[in-house]
């Protein structure tokens, strides 16, 4: 493949999303090698700053638990019975969330 199409392009390199698991050192090194290869082909590689926070991730998790619970409860019983138990338990953990908690979770997912 001709890499000249990369010349002059800007490529964002995100090594830390701001939350979640840390990047494995071997994967970090492989990504670094790939970034250097892309730069050698003429692109400008710029490391990006984290864009999420643990609070945002928690908000997204709560929102999606409730969304999934709503979807699961709408399924016919025979279809829901095929759901993996840990998915079902994860969604059911939102059963006691209040409307205010879900609204707050949605808001937290959008702000730092």
Write a structural description.
This protein is mostly helical. The chain folds into two domains: 45 residues, no CATH class; 55 residues. It contains five helices and two strands. It has a two-stranded parallel sheet. It starts with 9 loop residues before the first strand and ends with a helix.
Question: Which SSEs are present, and which pair or pack?
Answer:
Layout: E1 10-13, H1 25-40, E2 44-47, H2 54-74, H3 77-80, H4 85-92, H5 99-108
Parallel strand pairs: 1-2
Short description:
The chain contains five helices and two strands. With 112 residues, it is mainly alpha-helical.
- Percent of residues in helices: 40-55%
**Which structural class best describes the helix and strand composition?**
mainly alpha
Question: Termini distance?
Answer: 40 Å
**H/E series:** EHEHHHH
